[in-house]
Fold:
Amino acid sequence: MSLIKKLRIAFGKRALRKEAARDGRIRRAVNLAEARDIGILFNMTSETEYDRVSRFARSLQEQGKKVQVIGFYKYRKLPPYYAQKLAYDIIQPRNLDLFYRPSAGFVAHFINHPFDMLIDLGTTNEFPLYYIAVLSKAGFKLGRKGEAEAGNLPYDLMIETDQETESEALIRHLIYYTSAFRFNG
Structure:
């Protein structure tokens, strides 16, 4: 990563900390069975990854859950496998401001939507997805334990995995743990 990009992301993180300090979300732990409205974030690195997330979202929809998905694709031109499906909102470099914060309208809507559960299948290394996860008004946030700045992980439940662990394994862990929990009230 170039020095200029690192500096721009550092300024983006600084602005994010200020915005996150005004966080007005209402935290509410729910298990997967109770969640009715779910947001999913993912890093679209390959067609395989895209298909995994699609299968997961479809399985949640088949259970009667409302699912919204945002992916991050780091290249300017969308891959052919996405153009055929056009199922989810995708953040591309043109949707990022100078400090790599996502600026598309669908991102603001996603952040302000009070999901019962937010599932982040990306890594903390992708700042645009991290930005959305931090500012999201979701009641319960789940994601991968990463190497973000100490104490700045936005998740209520973290699964410890390697950053290279595929989303399929992460999905299995998230389903297992969120199905096992029972919350009162």
In short: Residues 61 and 91 are 22 Å apart (CA to CA). The two ends are 46 Å apart (CA to CA). The chain has a mean pLDDT of 87.
